[in-house]
Amino acid sequence: MSMDRLLEGIAAKQNPTVAGLDPKLAYIPEYILKESFEKYGETLEGAADALLVYNKGLIDALCDIVPAVKPQAAYYEMYGWQGVKALAETIAYARAKGMYVITDGKRNDIGATMQAYASAHLGVTEVCGKNLSAFDADALTVNGYLGSDGIEPLLSVCAKGDKGIFVLVKTSNPSSGELQDRQLATGETVYQLMGGNCETWGEKLPGKFGYSGVGAVVGATYPAQLDELRKTLPHTFFLVPGYGAQGGGADDVAPAFDDNGLGAVVNSSRGILCAWQKEKCDGGEYAAAARREAIRMRDEIVARIGEIKLPN
Ligand SMILES: O=c1ccn([C@@H]2O[C@H](COP(=O)(O)O)[C@@H](O)[C@H]2O)c(=O)[nH]1
């Protein structure tokens, strides 16, 4: 099961973190921009080339210590098809380097359309009788608020192709409570209901370490909810954004983990991407600075949760 591969990577590297690949031109060192714009002009193609070169440098610097990357689709889509091509090439490059790739697309739609999203991001697309992979990530973030028929197509694609999904449950943004904290007539909140759905959907994708192929997105900015959900969703692995730039720290994410130091993978995007600017070092050092920040983040979290052990 796909989530098992993520857990194995986390345990092997003793690192429960994922590097967010949300590149912006403002984060990319001048020498990379110059070369890409010389090659392709100051165009979308030039920008997309710069993103890819920048990402490859980061992946090379991180792949032996960080188990996973999370490219956020929006930062590629803003450069049109050229950016989307850079996304596909980033996914392929990271996977070739042994990293687990979570595409952050937050996709959802009616069942028929969701089938197309599932094929695009995790499965295969049939062309003239041949099954071709399009983006081929290991996992995709999805929005469950259209209900089960928007999730079911993903479950079959995940089962067939050894892939996983992360469903938005309690997001990290300041206004997430406007809807997600609303109390239903049953007494439970919307995010608790969605968390329960993850447990139910996950029954179709059981994993060998107790966590299913259906994970949940729960923000580091809500540590009390992380704690509560870890206790009530024993089979649901968490993707935890909100560490670093959004203010979350090791103490906030610690409740997301179980007694084996498993249960969650913590994302940092800007914290890692902009480390070289924060350190005020030369652009040529951007990948080394990202690695230093990734090590600092890993060590801070592991010091709080202890050794990560895969259950027998
Ligand atoms: O609840 C959520 C869900 C997704 N995200 C995404 O995670 C990263 C966070 O980036 P930082 O720079 O580390 O703040 C970004 O891609 C978001 O779209 C989230 O923040 N919260």
Automatic annotation (TrEMBL):
Q: Which Gene3D superfamilies match?
A: Aldolase class I
Molecular-function GO term, any one:
orotidine-5'-phosphate decarboxylase activity
The active-site annotation reads: 106 (proton donor)
In this chain the Orotidine 5'-phosphate decarboxylase domain maps to 16-290
Q: Which UniProt keywords apply?
A: Decarboxylase, Lyase, Pyrimidine biosynthesis
- Give the EC number(s) listed in the UniProt record: 4.1.1.23
Highest taxon listed in the record's lineage: Bacteria
Question: Part of which pathway?
Answer: Pyrimidine metabolism; UMP biosynthesis via de novo pathway; UMP from orotate: step 2/2
Keyword check for Methyltransferase: no
Q: Which family does it belong to?
A: Belongs to the OMP decarboxylase family. Type 2 subfamily.
Q: What is this protein called?
A: Orotidine 5'-phosphate decarboxylase
UniProt organism field: Neglectibacter timonensis
Q: What is the lineage of its organism?
A: Bacteria, Bacillati, Bacillota, Clostridia, Eubacteriales
